[in-house]
């Protein structure tokens, strides 16, 4: 079962002081985060500790325990074999790294902690948002990403109710802390990706199969936009443009073509929901010396992951399920 994909949908807000609950659009949330809006019940702004926050939509169909395993769930990763069987996080550590970590005993303890982490799956919107965040924050701009559609086992046991996002500051969740014995998955309110949506923390044994595609898709760009973008980039000289701003003296000059690419990406981002615009612009930034057509196709493909998910779902439909 697929849930309706809607990056632009309204969200529910709950005030921590007066318990007033109401619905807003993403533009209201953007203004509120800049202290330009207040709670209509008590006038509180975002600057207070118990200020209004995005809340779970009481009509979310994933609140129904019996439907959780019937829904499609999503995940984005740079791993081509997620969730990795016989996961060994220490396998990629060089001998020098192992020595710096304190030797094999400490490496083994570290690896055990990594294996104890929960996996995360969520809505399609959350998976795309996660990819943009990783490109921006984790230097993954030139990494190949994969979108996974996850099917859960029909026998999966879901923890009663839901949790506020239990992730620590790096996004990790210890599986045993949210899924006690006899429980396979825990629902939680996602604050960071697809805010207000439900995601799941779960173990590998809860997953029946996955379907995988590389994203952005290689044939989903807008040909007209790509031609116009290439012409605009090739129409500038490519001369160096000094950096501006407070940190300008620490930054290398950019080429005028890279600057033009960033302007084009920002213009395209203006057609997206406001909560994705900054990350999209950063993720689509043109690298120095990058081929204009290759950049334009990738950028248009990223845009269409959000603007036209139907082609992405169709591509997933053509993939054979892989047992987890």
* Backbone structural class: alpha+beta
Largest sheet: 4 strands, antiparallel
Count up the helices: 11
How would you state the average pLDDT, rounded?
89
Tell me the number of strands.
Answer: 13
> Taking strands numbered 1, 2, ... along the chain, how are they ordered across the largest sheet?
4-6-10-13
Radius of gyration: 22 Å
Residue share in β-strands: 15-25%
Q: What is the molecular shape?
A: globular
| Low-confidence parts | none
Percentage of residues assigned to helices: 25-40%
Element pattern in H and E: EEHEHEHHEHEEHEEEHEEHHHHE
Distance N to C terminus: 19 Å
3D architecture notes:
There is one protein chain. The protein is an alpha+beta fold and 324 residues long. Helices cover 34% and strands 17% of the residues. The chain has helices at residues 26-33, 65-68, 95-100, 104-115, 124-137, 175-178, 223-234, 256-269, 274-283, 292-307, 309-317; strands at 11-14, 21-24, 53-55, 73-77, 119-121, 145-152, 163-164, 185-190, 197-202, 207-215, 240-241, 254-255, 322-323. A hairpin with a 6-residue loop joins strand 8 (185-190) and strand 9 (197-202). The longest helix is centred in the last third of the chain and has 16 residues, at 292-307. It is globular, with a radius of gyration of 22 Å. The model has no long low-confidence stretch (mean pLDDT 89).
Observed structural traits:
324 residues, alpha+beta, 4-stranded antiparallel β-sheet, globular
């Amino acid at each position: 079962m697929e849930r309706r994909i809607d990056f632009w949908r309204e969200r529910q807000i709950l005030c921590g002081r007066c318990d007033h609950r109401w619905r807003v659009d993403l533009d209201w949330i953007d203004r509120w985060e800049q202290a330009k809006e207040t709670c209509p019940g008590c006038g509180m702004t975002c600057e207070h500790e118990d200020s209004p926050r995005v809340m779970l939509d009481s009509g979310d169909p994933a609140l129904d325990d019996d439907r959780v395993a019937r829904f499609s769930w999503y995940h984005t990763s740079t791993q081509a074999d997620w969730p990795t069987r016989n996961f060994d996080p220490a396998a990629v550590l060089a001998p020098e790294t192992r020595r710096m970590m304190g030797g094999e005993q400490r490496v083994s303890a570290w690896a055990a902690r990594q294996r104890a982490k929960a996996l995360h799956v969520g809505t399609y919107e959350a998976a795309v948002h996660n990819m943009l965040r990783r490109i921006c924050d984790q230097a993954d701009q030139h990494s190949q990403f994969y979108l996974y559609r996850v099917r859960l086992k029909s026998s999966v046991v879901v923890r009663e109710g839901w949790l506020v996002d239990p992730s620590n500051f790096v996004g990790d969740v210890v599986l045993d802390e949210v899924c006690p014995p006899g429980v396979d998955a825990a629902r939680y309110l996602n604050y960071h990706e697809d805010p207000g949506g439900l995601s799941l923390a779960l173990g590998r044994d809860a997953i029946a199969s996955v379907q995988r595609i590389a994203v952005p898709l290689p044939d989903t760009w807008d040909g007209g936009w790509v031609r116009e973008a290439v012409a605009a980039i090739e129409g500038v000289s490519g001369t160096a443009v000094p950096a501006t701003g407070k940190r300008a003296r620490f930054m290398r000059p950019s080429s005028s073509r890279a600057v033009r690419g960033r302007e084009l990406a920002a213009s395209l981002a203006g057609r997206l929901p406001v909560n994705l615009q900054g990350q999209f612009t950063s993720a689509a930034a043109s690298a120095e010396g990058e081929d204009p057509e290759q950049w334009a196709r990738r950028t248009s493909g990223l845009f269409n992951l959000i603007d036209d998910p139907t082609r992405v779902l169709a591509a997933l439909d053509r993939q054979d399920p892989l047992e987890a």
